[in-house]
Write a structure and sequence with these properties.
- The structure is a single chain.
- Helix content is 16%, strand content 36%.
- By secondary structure, the protein is an alpha+beta fold.
- Strands 1, 3, 4, 5, 6, 7 and 8 form a 7-stranded mixed sheet that branches.
- It is elongated.
């Protein structure tokens, strides 16, 4: 098992490159706390831990990986910050460019040397796994559209008795029965 901390996330597959059927395990840890993903309300709270199992199949390197970290995000309903634990699994195919088939040229990570910086590949996996909207809890009531109060913290009665004008005709219809 190889363990790395700091710097870029790099792995060296020289020990399994020419050994079909062999595998190697990597346990990588990287601090991305200062990384700007271009998403305002998102930051890494803990280092990103990546575990990789790389298997040489003689045609390619098959990679099974897991990623674990905690992100500080903003709830899309109440706009409060909270910690979102991220844990995901992924599979990847790595192949040396000279040995790649036409399909692999489009889908696999192409290698030119034994040492590979996988930082961008890991960040790509994280970004793809993020939900469209973060919600702090299934019971989050969000903000009142009238007064802006956080309904999780303050009871709000702004919307009681107010009927959406688009639905007013339906309210009359129900009272006629």
């Amino acid at each position: 098992m190889n363990v790395y901390w700091g710097g870029n996330m790099k792995v060296n597959i020289a020990q399994v490159r020419y050994r079909s059927g062999e595998s190697v395990h990597f346990d990588l840890v990287e601090d991305f706390s200062s990384l700007d993903l271009g998403i305002e309300a998102l930051s890494f709270q803990t280092p990103v831990r990546v575990q990789l199992q790389i298997n040489n199949t003689s045609k390619a390197m098959l990679v099974n990986g897991t990623i674990h970290t905690d992100l500080k995000v903003m709830c899309g309903r109440c706009l409060e910050s909270f910690v979102y634990p991220l844990s995901l699994s992924f599979q990847d195919e790595w192949v040396f460019r000279a040995l790649a088939t036409d399909d692999q040229l489009e889908t696999a990570l192409l290698l030119d040397k034994d040492e590979i910086d996988i930082t961008d590949r890991i960040l790509e996996q994280i970004v793809v796994a993020l939900p469209m909207k973060f919600i702090c809890s299934a019971k989050c009531q969000g903000l009142c559209p009238t007064c802006g109060a956080n309904r999780n913290l303050t009871p709000c009665h702004c919307g009681e008795g107010v009927v959406d004008p688009r639905l007013a005709a339906l309210a009359k219809w129900q009272s006629n029965n």
